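Lab meeting, item 3. Inverse folding demo.
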């Protein structure tokens, strides 16, 4: 094992460093975006190999001023830290007590902010109604839009806080959060402003995404050319307003039969990129809709869902990956589960063809009311056939790349943010193995303990 220490530390004032000791296992997930067979490589440092969690050569994690400075065997690491001028007395010690340390989980696809709930749709679907059928009848997304338009920024903020706490309790330290329940400029801006404020307040960091193209709103539906007129209003009115506000980093579209066509999606995403917004899209969630092809064509960072891509779409993603312009396939297995679908994203085919795979919760009130990344990891193993190690890669480093933060978070490597979780299990392979258990003991965000269950 090589020990790499970021030099520095001499003479700095507080805050002190942080040294995590006593772990049964430290899983760094270091080494960049993973595709193909490498998606199963997590870089696992085990105390069992060293003679136990308290042995001199057991793995420890060292952080300084919010950044990882080294991961490695304790005795070597302490020596190197001192020789680099760090005073060991200025490191607080955190005892992992035989638990596992992993990078903080990254949720690359959430609809965090909304008002109301949609438990009635669960029963409608049990009686045979389809998701798109409920939307076409004015329910689904549109019922959440009505509730969200009526909600104040304060109410949205309180709702967001509640669910962010839930996410943190399941080990998530960074998320992407979409607007998309306003579908008018004022409400979309309110959602993006609240997402920004919540992220600034922390501890979970939030990357806001503009999703004006989530559905055609009611006021356009009665017109014969409603969808087209709404697309024009996104391009001519919403995008300039969103860009002027300066909060959104991404633009997303629901590219799906019954929502927006791939041609409409292309026009919106290209216009958005003219305003400096990076592209991502809801692609082929229910039926092949040209989403995967479009993502590869325009160089989206991420194509999400992909439960029903065409063969041409899979090939387009494989070619993009082979040419070094990979689109991350962000799979959302909790959604297919909650929609009671028995067709799943072809995750094994993506991995075989060298397409990097991430997973997210898709937290939203209609199709995935869960904020738990570990639950998404369990379903990814059971329904998509990911191994537990592939699921961890998908929920950390690949998810970080899917939201453009692959150089900053998602692995425990020198120079990256000190975002990590101490789990109450001796190996990360048990994280997806105990579904719905509360396995998180401690969460550290940028070097600070932000959750400690003792
Ligand atoms: O509110 O139904 N698929 N958007 C696209 C969703 C699901 C969220 C919702
Ligand atoms: Zn979504």
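The presenter then showed the designed sequence:
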């Amino acid at each position: 094992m090589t020990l790499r220490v970021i030099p520095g530390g001499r003479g700095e004032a507080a805050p002190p460093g942080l040294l995590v000791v006593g772990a049964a296992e430290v899983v760094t997930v270091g080494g960049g975006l993973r595709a193909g067979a490498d998606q199963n490589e997590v870089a696992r440092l085990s105390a069992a190999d060293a003679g136990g969690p308290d042995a001199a050569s057991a793995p420890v994690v060292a952080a300084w001023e919010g950044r990882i400075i080294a991961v490695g065997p304790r005795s070597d690491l302490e020596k190197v830290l001192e020789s680099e001028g760090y005073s060991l007395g200025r490191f607080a010690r955190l005892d992992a007590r035989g638990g596992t340390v992993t990078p903080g989980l990254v949720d690359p696809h959430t609809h965090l902010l909304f008002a109301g709930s949609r438990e009635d749709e669960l029963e409608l679907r049990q009686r045979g109604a389809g998701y798109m059928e409920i939307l076409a009848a004015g329910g689904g997304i549109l019922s959440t839009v009505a509730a969200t338009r009526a909600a104040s920024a304060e109410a949205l903020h309180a709702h967001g806080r509640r669910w962010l706490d839930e996410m943190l309790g399941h080990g998530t330290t960074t998320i992407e959060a979409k607007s998309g329940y306003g579908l008018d400029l004022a409400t979309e801006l309110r959602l993006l402003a609240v997402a920004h404020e919540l992220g600034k307040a922390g501890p979970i960091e939030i990357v806001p995404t503009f999703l004006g193209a989530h559905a055609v709103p009611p006021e356009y539906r009665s017109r014969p050319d409603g969808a087209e007129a709404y697309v024009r209003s996104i391009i001519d009115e919403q995008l300039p307003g969103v860009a002027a506000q300066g909060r959104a980093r991404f633009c997303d579209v629901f590219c799906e039969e019954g929502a927006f066509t791939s041609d409409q999606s292309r026009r919106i995403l290209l216009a958005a990129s003219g305003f400096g917004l990076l592209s991502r899209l809801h692609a082929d969630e229910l039926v092949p809709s040209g989403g995967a092809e479009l993502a590869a064509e325009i160089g989206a960072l991420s194509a999400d869902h992909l439960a029903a891509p065409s063969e041409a779409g899979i090939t387009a993603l494989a070619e993009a990956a082979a040419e070094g312009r990979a689109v991350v396939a962000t799979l959302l297995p909790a959604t297919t589960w909650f929609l009671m679908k028995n067709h799943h994203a072809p995750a094994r085919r993506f991995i075989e063809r060298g397409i990097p795979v991430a997973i997210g919760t898709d937290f939203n009130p209609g199709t995935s009311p869960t904020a738990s990344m570990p639950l998404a990891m369990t379903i990814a193993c059971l329904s998509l056939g990911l191994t537990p190690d592939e699921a961890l890669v998908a929920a950390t480093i690949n998810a970080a790349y899917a939201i453009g933060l692959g150089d900053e978070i998602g692995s425990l490597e020198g120079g990256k943010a000190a975002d990590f979780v101490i789990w109450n299990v001796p190996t990360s392979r048990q994280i997806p193995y105990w579904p719905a258990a509360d396995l998180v003991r401690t969460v550290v965000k940028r070097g600070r303990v932000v959750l400690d269950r003792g």
